[in-house]
Amino acid sequence: DIYLKQMLESSKDSAKLDAMKRIVGMIAKGKNASELFPAVVKNVASKNIEIKKLVYVYLMRYAEEQQDLALLSISTFQRALKDPNQLIRASALRVLSSIRVPIIVPIMMLAIKEASSDLSPYVRKNAAHAIQKLYSLDPEQKEMLIEVIEKLLKDKSTLVAGSVVMAFEEVCPDRIDLIHKNYRKLCNLLVDVEEWGQVVIIHMLTRYARTQFVSPWKDDEVVEEYSENNFYESDEEQKEKDQKVKNTYTMDPDHRLLLRNTKPLLQSRNAAVVMAVAQLYWHLAPKSEAGIVSKSLVRLLHSNREVQYIVLQNIATMSIQRKGMFEPYLKSFYVRSTDPTMIKTLKLEILTNLANEANISTLLREFQTYVRSQDKQFAAATIQAIGRCATNITEVTDTCLNGLVCLLSNRDEIVVAESVVVIKKLLQTQPAHHGEIIKHMAKLLDNITVPVARASILWLIGEYCERVPKIAPDVLRKTAKTFTNEDDLVKLQILNLGAKLYLTNSKQTKLLTQYVLNLGKYDQSYDIRDRTRFIRQLIVPNEKSGALSKYAKKIFLAQKPAPLLESPFKDRDHFQLGTLSHTLNSRATGYLELSDWPKVAPDPSVRNVDVAELAKEWTGILGKTKKEKPTEKFYSESEEDEDESSSTSASGRCLESNLHLPCLKNSIFRTGHYLKRIRKKFKKSQSYVAAPVSVPTKTHELLHRMSGKGLAAHYHFSRQPGIFGDRMVSVQLTVTNTTDQKIENIHIKEKKLPPGMRMHEFNPIECLEPAGSITVSMGIDFCDSAQMASFQLCTKDDYFNVNIQPPVGELLLPVTMSEKDFKKEQGMLTGMNETSATIAVAPQNSTRLVIIEKVVKAANLGVVPSGQDNIHRFAAKTVHSGSLMLVTVELKESSTAQLIINTEKTVIGSVLLRELKPVLSQG
Amino acid sequence: MIHSLFLINCSGDIFLEKHWKSVVSQSVCDYFFEAQEKAIDVENVPPVISTPHHYLISIYRDKIFFVSVIQTEVPPLFVIEFLHRVADTFQDYFGECSETAIKDNVVIVYELLEEMLDNGFPLATESNILKELIKPPTILRSVVNSITGSSNVGDTLPTGQLSNIPWRRAGVKYTNNEAYFDVIEEIDAIIDKSGSTVFAEIQGVIDSCIKLSGMPDLSLSFMNPRLLDDVSFHPCIRFKRWESERVLSFIPPDGNFRLISYRVSSQNLVAIPVYVKHMISFKENSSSGRFDVTIGPKQNMGKTVEGVVMTVHMPKAVLNMNLTATQGSYTFDPVIKVLTWDVGKITPQKLPNLKGIVNLQSGAPKPEENPSLNIQFKIQQLAISGLKVNRLDMYGEKYKPFKGVKYITKAGKFQVRT
After folding, report:
1. Per the confidence metrics, is the pTM higher than 0.80?
2. How far apart are the C-alpha atoms of A682 and A678, rounded to whole Å?
3. Kindly report the CA angle at A568 between A564 and A573, in degrees rounded to 5?
4. Is the CB of B77 less than 8 angstroms away from the CB of A588?
5. ipTM, 2 decimals?
6. Nearest residue in chain A measured CA to CA from B311
């Protein structure tokens, strides 16, 4: 290290460079090189480009750990931001925004703002990237960043488009309104955007389109939601409109524009782009048109195994719903012995989905090859697939069954076992004439050792014991002998078999069954003993046996519904295709829900672009890029024409929409509704915030009627998470008029909030009748502090200074977590982050229920299940910053308890501790 | 999007890590190792793994796992495609994408990764741009660098990123101007026991090596463009021209690149250039079996089939094989049970044959299935689909370039079931 330091301080660039290279090598290996920070940071202004670059690499890695020292480098970047060379400006912005030091947030914000109006599109692109970096460093900056995003979305450069849409998706994906005016431009630029940007834009536009256009799927079942619509209009009007929608569907030209402009991208060399277009067609195109994507998806199967894996998963989902799309490519899904197992099973899945009367015989022949595969896991999957084909296509049920019976004599035990399981399922669907097969299977019992298979056979014999009256008792006899050595699964079925035989053929089997029941009674497994007791009570009559035993036969031998053999990919398309969530079949963090089609399209004129504005921008841009014009023309089909034509048609549409004013208003309403719904869903996915366990009824006085000249106000905390924004505590305010005159225009003014605190006011109350009272909601972001929010409550002619001070218990949102997670998190929040106190507990307060009730009433905490009776755990996170707040109450002897709070927010933690103390000690 | 990247070799060592946002601990890879253990075989490690706080998306290339750490929803193909692009870039820079090459050039690797992603979002992935930013290592340059202390980083700033032809670097100059196109076709096929074709299709690519000065504007036309059923393009190709005239019109990147990939319409019958006669059997209740395979030419359009290699994954019960080859040489790896027969050229006068005895583990049951035969071959100067380049025209520059087209047909995933 000393050696490296010396080299860094040497006057020769070659020595410095050598040192930096070694340091980068250390970083690459994950070794700690943070001690060299002071020596390295000195070289940030080096003239040598390579040294400089490597210093940047180092800075980005360690600045977060060495914040004070990192500040030394900032002035260098600030200077570089003003460099005449655009590449230097861009790279300065890049490094500056990658240094994760909170103190420089204002500097970063300023730099981003400036860069976003830089003349160079490359610098603007980097500004778009910096937006996300700043947002993740300080989400507080959201509003200002949205302004920058709004500005950059208007940018006409293909370089910027992808990056700014990416920023939009990360920072404010719910601000669909920002897209309207840029929608057509994005559609038209798309072909010329770089491939990574294309993917992001296509995914965003898919979501956008689902909120703005009506469904092109004509014959689809429409989910009727009249109740919701009734709010806005009468039934008749609604029906009329529905009819209109159904009869005369014409696609919005903007919807068509998107489909038309994405289609050429199916020819992209980038698999992610092709998949993005495919999912767009799947979610947006009329069903008759979606077929065009199949060919391109099948082409991707020629790629490496990772691409194949994802593409096959998506095809599997598609092929369940729309077989026709992939039927012509059936053979492309044939399995090779060299495919990895995960690819094989996916292909098999698709083949099974595509099976129909016409191709089933070819497919079954193909499946025969697979059954003999050396890859036994795959062979077993094939048997399952045959079972599914057999149930789905009745013509071949018998053929399949025969085939499976042949497999029963296979040498491989896994194959036989899987066949037994599948045959069992198939026989259940049509047991009428399969006595022979059951007999055959009974014989197999001597040789098969796989528990599932043995259990399946026993179940079959029991269920259909009347069809094999001679064999069944004998099977029971044999298995009674081996009972003690069987697997639990098998034991349960032996008991079942015994019970069923006892009920149908007690003469022969009474003793045997009793023997088995006796064995079961002393079995080691709890389940077996339990089942034994249950069966004995039900079937063996005695004086105590209740009314149920009369119905024992009906209970045991009831007709059972056949199991459904379903694809694991069924219904997976409720996740947007091509997403991580679809691949995992569970909602990934940050997944954005695709909304349902709106019933009535929101106003299409929002996408119209003002002609004058357009012209102005164009003259600006033309002036700058005149030179590049000819080549540009070659690649993007002259954008100008497109825009012009769209704006002329737009003015026509404007007129049209004026005519339909009432329905327009209505649709605006509805969009609001949708947005809210999307937002709600989004939030749920991000954290595991639970509903409040209890909502306190206690109200606090805001304004006494005497001091309010007859206007009284109370507030209470409704504990509803984030109605106004995810950092707001919701407060319900009840205003009462105790005068004998109307009070008009009640509203909030003159907010005196500590820095950072924000308030979402309620809408002004126009008029409050005498003796009237009204409750409104407002949101306050207390910034996780117990400071007061002061403001004025005003009426038409008066104003009153009031303030709200939250109990710390209301600055929390309950979360659910397992005991294990709780302990893990607690383990990370020790030392400084832990406060505790010993308190006295009133004797009546020492039961679990009372403790929970008292604690959750005092603070908005979630209850964590606890394995120990004397320890009670609660968890929440702070509303503003989402920091965990873990509360533990551990009851000790002699009416005391240890109260422990673990949190990063030590101030609130200690206040909360103080507030909770009296809660448990008082009666 | 992409938070961090870990490169892991086959023995499970993390030999490189890079973070684009705050640092993620190496321990996140434990979930990957767990999945790897469960998968037994490298090919079966799932490309997407979910862990409590992150998602891991990985690819396996050239004996290296590229494991990326993701925190929020992202199209998995986006990441997969990007990781392959990273591996391609290493290949392009160092001639091979191996652990040694990466370790030897760790500084360049780091500089490349820095340029390719910004805050986890792809920034510069075109090789033309990257090569302007960071020069690839050559022996001469590394010698010169060590003497003069100069560097690999380009001293002039690249302009490629700023032009509207982002795939081509500016100021290209050659003394010999050349443009070469390799039309490479692969036959994917499954042949059944009786020798009839279960499935066959042709996948082709045109790889180009273009060394032309200035800003040449090329157009390439085919005699029979209708053969191409489904095509994917390098971004340089003007889609509209192809749609309307079936001509490939483009300003090329400098150097090597893949111009198009295509699939030949499945309506056309695919010619299968080789046939295999096989007799593989295992005797009941005996610890041996017979193996007898002959390869011969068929529908080869009068060209020689060469570079023939046959690989067979024998059943687990096979202990050893005693064979004689009339041509070429064979090896059997008793650990992974793979038989490889390197045949070479097929001469129709004397068909290559491999036959002999298979020794089975005694007492093991007779294998259910006969193994499939995987065959590789090459045919020079033939595009099996019949695709032919008609002409190449150049606009925008005055010099006369040297032009060349080469055709080659290969076996893709060519499998014979027995």
Report:
1. no
2. 6
3. 115
4. no
5. 0.92
6. A338
